[in-house]
Amino acid sequence: MKKPDPAKARAAVLAIADWIAADSPEGARAAGIAQPSRSQLADAVRYTARLLAADAPGHSVELRVPPFVAVQCIEGPRHTRGVPPNVVEASPHAWLRLATGHGSWDALVAQADTTASGTRAGEIAQWMPIIRL
Q1: How many CB atoms lie within 10 A of CB 12?
Q2: Which residues of 77-87 are buried (b: 16+ CB within 10 A; e: fewer)?
Q3: Are 18 and 28 spatial neighbours (Cβ–Cβ below 8 Å)?
Q4: pLDDT one-digit tens code per residue, 5-41
Q5: In what helix (H) or strand (E) does residue 89 lie, and over which residues does it extend?
Q6: Which element (helix H / strand E) includes 63?
Q7: Which domain of life is it from (predicted)?
Q8: What single-letter DSSP state applies at residue 104?
Q9: Does position 3 have pLDDT exceeding 90, yes or no?
Q10: Measured between alpha carbons, how far is residue 93 from residues 36, 68, 80, 85 in Å?
C-alpha cells in the first residue's frame, strides 16, 4: 500500500476540524456546526486510517471505521482467517477525535460506539495523534 499524502490528509481533516473538535456529533449540531458531507467524512477517515497503517505497518490489529475503511496495522503475528484477534471498531467521529489528538484512547474505548478487543488493540494509542489539530 502506498502511503497517503500527508498534506491531503491534513487538508481533509482541517476541512471538518470544527466538527471533529465537538464532543459529539450531537454536540456539534447543537453548536450550529454543520455535519460534514459524506465525501468529506470519508476522505478524513480514510486518510487518517491509511496514515496509521503506513506509520505502523503490520497485521496484528485491525482498525475498522465503518462504513469507510478497515486497515491492518502494528507489527506482529499475521492474521489470515476468520475474525481477527485484535480489532478496534469506532464511529467516524470517535476515530477522528483520537486521530487528531482531541480524545484519548481511554475516552475512545469508553464510548458506546467504539469497541476494542484483543490484547494488542490498545497499541494503536502509541501512534496517536496522526494529525494534531
Answers
A1: 24
A2: eebeeeebbbb
A3: yes
A4: 999 999 999 999 999 999 999 999 999 999 999 999 9
A5: strand 87-89
A6: strand 61-65
A7: Bacteria
A8: -
A9: no
A10: 10, 12, 29, 24
pLDDT digits (tens, 9 = 90+) for 71-112: 999 998 766 666 678 999 999 999 999 999 998 999 888 888
Q: What is the pTM of this model?
A: 0.93
Q: Which position has the grid cell 454543520?
A: 34
Cell numbers of 82, please?
476468520
Sheet of 87-89: strands edge to edge? 69-73, 61-65, 87-89, 115-117
Residues forming a β-bridge with 53: none
Long-range contacts formed by 63-67: CB under 8 A, 24+ apart: 63/87, 63/88, 63/89, 63/90, 63/95, 63/124, 64/88, 64/89, 64/90, 65/89, 65/90, 65/91, 65/92, 65/95
Provide the Cα torsion 87, 126, 13, 48; round to 10°: -50
124 and 130 Cβ atoms separated by less than 8 Å: no
Report how far residue 109's alpha carbon sits from residue 113's, in angstroms, rounded to the nearest whole number.
Answer: 8
